[in-house]
Design brief:
The protein is mainly alpha-helical. It is 72% helix and 0% strand. Helix 3 packs antiparallel against helix 4, helix 4 packs across helix 8 and helix 7 packs antiparallel against helix 8. 33% of the residues are buried.
Length: 287
């Protein structure tokens, strides 16, 4: 891992040195990839356009966040801004200098990247949903338009994912391999939901039971690792020690804190969908 990390540091230094002029854009793309945008922007928008897609999106976000939590507990991924300060591979204390930014000092483990994973899974849902409308076109001109749309949307998808990944590496909060893992993990989660139509008809009770199961499983897994004397908050002291500015430390970026916040929001977000579904069933019975 030291070789992988040291090569990652070289890439970070290259980005910070040669792409300084794009700092504002890269910081903006990092905010674009923030998983919290799913609840505040993407879900409300898509729920108005298509309730099925909105429901799928919120579930992809929650399940993706849950897997991200478990992977981070298992993989124990370091973050660049503290790794360069603690590694012993650089001789004579000549550790590289990595610049930090107000959004650098996340406190959870670094692998896989939550921003990259959240961004890829939700944008995958949006792209496949948009393409599902064009795939029904039958005439030749429409088929050509579908192919053009397919190429355009997937190009946009990869431009956004690559930009988010570069932004997370640029601010020294992730190594390159961590964002790559995050992107493909998010795609796998989103693709799995493409083959899970049951979420479109599930009741509010099923949603709540599933959320409780995910939360209890994560809590139980946490307690088991705690009994094994594994400190799952090992990254917090490192973040506090090596962050250049104490005001930049964001405790809310620990994995369990993020999951705990996401699950109640999911219940609240899905209530309108379930109420609307119940109203439709009532109308059908009355007719």
């Amino acid at each position: 891992m030291d070789l992988l990390h040291s090569n990652g540091v070289l890439i970070i230094q290259h980005l910070q040195r040669d792409y300084r002029a794009y700092q504002d854009l890269l910081n903006f793309m990092s905010h674009i990839g923030d998983p919290r945008n799913i609840f505040s922007i993407y879900f409300p928008l898509w729920f108005q356009l298509n309730q099925v897609v909105g429901t799928k999106m919120i579930w992809v976000a929650v399940i993706g966040d849950w897997f991200n939590l478990i992977f981070k507990w298992i993989l124990f991924g370091h973050r660049p801004y503290w790794w360069v300060q603690e590694t012993m591979i650089y001789p004579n204390q000549s550790s590289p200098c990595l610049e930090q930014f107000p959004i650098t000092c996340e406190t959870g483990p670094g692998s896989p990247s939550g921003h990259a994973m959240g961004s890829s899974c939700v944008w995958y849902v949006m792209v496949t949903a948009a393409l599902s409308y064009t795939v029904r076109w039958k005439d030749k001109s429409a088929v050509s338009l579908h192919r053009l749309t397919w190429s355009f949307l997937w190009s946009i998808f990869w431009i956004i994912q690559i930009s988010v990944c570069i932004s997370r590496v640029f601010i020294a909060t992730h190594f390159p391999h961590q964002v790559v893992i995050g992107v493909f993990a998010g795609i796998l989660v989103a693709e799995a939901f493409e083959h899970t139509p049951a979420i479109q008809t599930a009741s509010l009770g099923i949603y709540i039971k599933t959320i409780l199961f995910l939360f209890i499983f994560a809590l139980g897994f946490y307690l088991v690792l705690k009994l094994l004397d594994i400190d799952l908050l090992w990254s917090v002291p490192k973040a506090k020690k090596w962050c250049a500015n104490p005001d930049w430390i964001n405790i809310d970026t620990t994995p369990f804190a993020g999951l705990s916040a996401a699950m109640p929001l999911t219940v609240v977000a899905l209530v309108p969908y379930c109420v609307h579904s119940l109203m439709r069933k009532t109308e059908k019975k009355s007719n």
